[in-house]
Amino acid sequence: MTNTPAAATVAPRIQTFSARLSEKQIYNDIYTLYHFELSAPPRIAFTAGQYVLLTVPGTPYRRSYSIASEPDLEHAIELLVDLRPQGEATRYLGGLELGAEIEFMGPVGSFTVPRLDSVLGQEESELWFVATGSGIAPFRSMIEDLLVDDADTRPITLVWGLRHAEHQFWYDEFTQLAEQHANFTFRPMLSQPPANWPLDSGRVTDVLLAHEFADISKTGFFLCGGSSMIEDSKAILLKRGVEEKHIHLEKFF
Ligand SMILES: Cc1cc2nc3c(=O)[nH]c(=O)nc-3n(C[C@H](O)[C@H](O)[C@H](O)COP(=O)(O)OP(=O)(O)OC[C@H]3O[C@@H](n4cnc5c(N)ncnc54)[C@H](O)[C@@H]3O)c2cc1C
Predict the structure, then answer these.
(1) Per-residue pLDDT for 206 more than 80?
(2) Cβ(230) – ligand 1 distance below 6 Å
(3) Spatial CB neighbours of 51, under 8 Å, sequence gap ≥ 6
(4) Which of 36, 44, 116, 208 pairs as cysteine with 19 (C-beta 3.0–4.6 A)?
(5) How would you class 49 by CB atoms within 10 Å of its CB: exposed for 0-12, middle for 13-18, buried for 19 or more?
(6) Counting atoms of ligand 1 from 1, which one is nearest the CA of 138?
(7) Averaged pLDDT of the chain
């Protein structure tokens, strides 16, 4: 058919979804993982790193949450939420019971890994992911997508900062990925470690300051979390000669 209007054949990129909370994993008093099975439409297509806009019922607000699950899941999304702010959205999510229906719009955002067939993708022969707290959410999706789905062979490093040991989660998952993929390095950090903590302690910025990169100018940096960590990290990287186009940012607050 030659006379079909384009609008009738091209699906809108951003859609409104309804979904049902089918599983909730309370990791500790801060972080909870929500698993939402999509009701309508039943599938979502997104690029790892994108986020959704959650409707907070009874309010005019929508809040952004990075999709923490892999794009291959399609029939569901997982959101990792830091429940501390206790504003409209986190109060709503904190009280959400299994079976509850939510509404969100998405996918949105351009915090994604440049495709390997793009100029930027070809320039970034090594990838560094740097997160604090819930900033890990999009990286779980991006790193699993790169390693498992794309079989990307570039060196990939994840540096993830939390404050206290009791707030750790996903360590087994990332450690297992590192065991299975020789090109992946997982560096968890605690800024306030207990005595005799065997792993790295300090801030993620300490690693960016001290690490001897193979070629920092060919490394793509992905920074996600609070704005102070992101500003400090970006300043360090610019000072070390990284071009701004290789510093990819997602500020949560
Ligand atoms: C692109 C994007 C993606 C995001 N993805 C996630 C995600 O995957 N997981 C997640 O937990 N949050 C994420 N956020 C933050 C989220 O959108 C909300 O801002 C947060 O959940 C607080 O919402 P609220 O309505 O409860 O409180 P609000 O009324 O929005 O905020 C209350 C106060 O808390 C501050 N605040 C917001 N988040 C934090 C935090 N984590 N730690 C400390 N202070 C904070 C705000 O700046 C504000 O001062 C994302 C934000 C953006 C912009």
Answers:
(1) yes
(2) no
(3) 64, 65, 66, 67, 106, 107, 108, 109, 111, 138
(4) 36
(5) buried
(6) 8
(7) 94
104 lines ligand 1 (CB under 6 A): no
Is residue 236 within 8 Å of residue 205, measured between CB atoms?
yes
Residue 82 has pLDDT above 80, yes or no: yes
Q: CATH number of the domain at 11-108, please? A: 2.40.30.10
| Statement: 119-251 belongs to CATH 3.40.50.80 | yes
Q: Which two tokens stand for residue 47?
A: 């690029």
- Checking if the pLDDT of 6 tops 50, the result is no
Q: How does pLDDT run across 116-140, given as a tens digit for each residue?
A: 999 999 999 999 999 999 999 999 9
Q: Is the CB of 36 under 6 A from ligand 1?
A: no
Asked if residue 198 lies in contact with residue 224, where contact means CB atoms within 8 angstroms, the answer is no
Residue span(s) of the chain under CATH 3.40.50.80 come to 119-251
